[in-house]
Automatic annotation (TrEMBL):
Species of provenance: Rheinheimera sp. BAL341
PANTHER family with a match to the protein in the record: GLYCOSYLTRANSFERASE
Top-level taxon of the source organism: Bacteria
Gene Ontology molecular function terms on file: glycosyltransferase activity
Keyword Membrane recorded: no
CDD domains: GT4_PimA-like
Protein name per UniProt: Glycosyltransferase
Leader sequence residues: none
UniProt-listed Pfam families: Glyco_trans_1_4
EC annotation from Swiss-Prot or TrEMBL: 2.4.1.-
Phylogenetic placement of the source organism: Bacteria, Pseudomonadati, Pseudomonadota, Gammaproteobacteria, Chromatiales
Keyword Transferase found: yes
Keywords, comma-separated and alphabetical: Glycosyltransferase, Transferase
EC top class, as a word: transferase
Length: 337
């Protein structure tokens, strides 16, 4: 059995859960043992600067101790850098490396760490084509594998959805919501039976939306599927920047897997998905957000049609089964035999 060590950012980090952890059983069935080596606390520094030296020392000691356990492993997967934005102890890894990237990490600290890891790796797996195009200048061995959706978990609801316009994600992405808050308020004023449903680690602080227009639900892994199933429309606002072009549209894919039509910013991978099938509507302005949301609120048949096609697209090209086959092709490559 081939043994693969995966160095992750932390066990509850979304990229760990959806780009590493959920493959464990799938790969084991194919005679590949995948073992996670998580950060001690987090690969990301604490908000308080005075805590960072102690955090960095703890994480480095932890990572060095993990490197000492690699003797029996055949391949190492690095999920980005072991310490966010820095290349540290990765240089001491003496096993074939696959660098797994799902963000534009090259935009941090002039891209030095990203460049060093890309040149050291035998293969790079990228979450979208934009990332692959960038990293190809440092490594010819590139495979695009989207962030997989477990379509056996994320399913359309058997019951009628609430009249919710929904957003699910980390509070770190609230600024994208705040940018369209006025447009959302306009839509909700026109449709008093509808509400904005937010699923996140903490409530947002809106300045224009009224409290009664918003339903907050604290995110948990146990309820994440049911939270999305309550929604009637899924939204994913973004700005148009190099950083967002590196995003892998995962919340959009989760909405689609649950049979939701989507209204999303027409940028990056969002735009790519919109071109692949009739799954929703793309926005470029506040007026677009108002018009497109109103169009879907008014047309239940259109919502249903977009939702069905979105689910089909995820099953065909973004499912855990599809992405497992792509990972097996990488791991069975001659670089790792």
């Amino acid at each position: 059995m081939k043994k693969v060590a995966a160095f992750t950012q932390g066990c509850l980090v979304p990229s760990t859960r959806f780009r590493i952890s959920q493959y464990e059983h799938k790969l084991r069935a194919c005679e590949i043992e995948l073992v996670q080596f998580d950060a001690k606390v987090s690969a990301y520094p604490p908000a308080a600067k005075w805590q960072r030296p102690w955090w960095l020392l703890q994480e480095l000691i932890h990572r060095v101790s993990q490197l000492g356990k690699l003797k029996s492993y055949d391949v190492v997967i690095l999920q980005r850098e072991m310490i966010s934005t820095l290349a540290t102890v990765e240089r001491f890894i003496n096993k074939p490396i696959i660098l797994d990237v799902d963000d534009a990490i090259f935009l941090r600290r002039n891209g030095r760490a990203a460049r060093q890891l890309a040149q050291k790796a035998q293969h790079i797996v990228c979450g979208n084509q934009y990332l692959a195009d960038y990293f190809r200048q440092y490594n010819a061995h590139i495979t695009v594998i989207p962030t997989a959706v477990d379509t056996q978990r994320f399913l359309p609801s058997a019951t009628k959805a609430e009249t919710y316009i929904g957003w699910s994600g980390s509070s770190s992405g609230f600024h994208f919501l705040y940018a369209i808050e006025a447009a959302l308020r306009s839509v909700l004023l026109l449709n008093p039976g509808w509400k904005l449903h937010i699923v996140a680690d903490k409530p947002p602080t809106f300045t224009v939306l009224e409290p009664e227009q918003v339903v907050f639900e604290k995110w948990s892994p146990e309820t994440e599927v049911q939270s999305i199933q309550k929604m009637a429309i899924g939204i994913m606002p973004l700005d148009d920047s190099a950083w967002t072009k590196g995003k892998c549209s995962y919340k959009m894919l989760l909405y689609m897997a649950c049979g939701l039509p989507v209204v999303v910013s027409d940028v990056g991978m969002n735009a790519q998905l919109l071109k692949e099938a009739e799954i929703g509507l793309g926005t470029r302005s506040d007026n677009d957000w108002i018009q497109h949301l109103q169009q879907l609120i008014d047309d239940a048949e259109l919502r249903n049609r977009f939702g069905i096609r979105g689910r089909q697209l995820v099953e065909e090209q973004y499912s855990l089964q599809y992405c497992t086959a792509k990972w097996l092709q990488v791991l069975d490559g001659e670089q790792f035999s």
